[in-house]
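Hey team,

Filing this mostly as a record. A colleague (T.K.) asked me to run one chain through the structure pipeline before their review meeting, and I want the input and output archived in the tracker in case anyone asks later how it was produced. No errors, nothing strange. Just documentation.

Input sequence:
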Amino acid sequence: MIEVNRDGEVWIFAEQEAGRLSDVPLELMSKGRSLADKLGVSLAAVLAGGRVRDLSEKLVRHGADKVYVVEHERLEPYQTNSYTRVLCDLIAERKPQIVLYGATPLGRDLAPRVASAMKAGLTADCTDLQIGDHTPPGSDQVHKNLMLQIRPAFGGNIIATIVNYDRWPQMATVREGVMPLTEPDPSRRGEIIECRADLNGLALPLEILQSQRRQKKVNLKAARIIVAGGAGVGSRENFRLIWELANCLGAAVGGSRAAVDLGYVDHDHQVGQTGTTVRPALYIACGVSGAVQHRAGMSESAKILAINTDPTAAIFSVAHYGVVGDLKEVIPRMIKAVRSGAGAKA
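Output structure:
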């Protein structure tokens, strides 16, 4: 644990693999920028790996005031022990007040190890972060400008706000896709700081002989239109209607967790709290009941069209347009209208 440092920086762990930044740290830059501005401190990125210095400018263009670059041959590929040592040494030396990680497999592995070593708190899978004040129960002391860590709890039935007022740095992992990816500013300038990695005598228990990664079958985050099916579709055979409508619209296919669990569509297509968070221009929810876990992943879509036989379905509470009807009748009519060019005139 480090001392409470009200002037400490806001840090983003800049996750990279094989010299390529993932989208998550770039998404976190926009939120990190707003947190740092509210606190009146610098926003810094921590970039570790083999040869990664060239990635620094990209982080600066996305909002970083500083980039701490740690290069060492033992930092490529990623291993928990080496990265934990690097992060802990930097935190102990520079005393940030906030450290954010993406809630990716790598971030979920690294963040708890760092939190445990630093005896600091960690909130996992946050969907929002704010700055605010907190008074502990039974105390008159007001702790100013803490990071409020907001996440679904109890299966998504409530939204919890978690604060960490006495064990710093305040740390959180943030779900992929919940923060908007802002456009880079090529005019921004930042400070690139090269830091030494002290890995002498550190045992790395694994020897990675080969790494294989499977690309996702669909990039839901980049899709402008998504047609999603839920358990109400009824069967994998009926789910072909979702694919047909998506093909007509040039859209991506999504699914609720229930649809994935029933085998209607692969997990790569899952939208929601345990899937992908999306913000398309148009989201068409077909046979989706609208459980809070699913709404958490798509409610910020620009326009939402819901099709469901149940007029009381929760999905209608977030939909801009709703159709109460059988999707087996509604979708073929929509496909016919699209193919005939209805509504295509400017």
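Quick notes for T.K.: The CA atoms of residues 101 and 173 lie 5 Å apart. The chain has eight helices and 17 strands.
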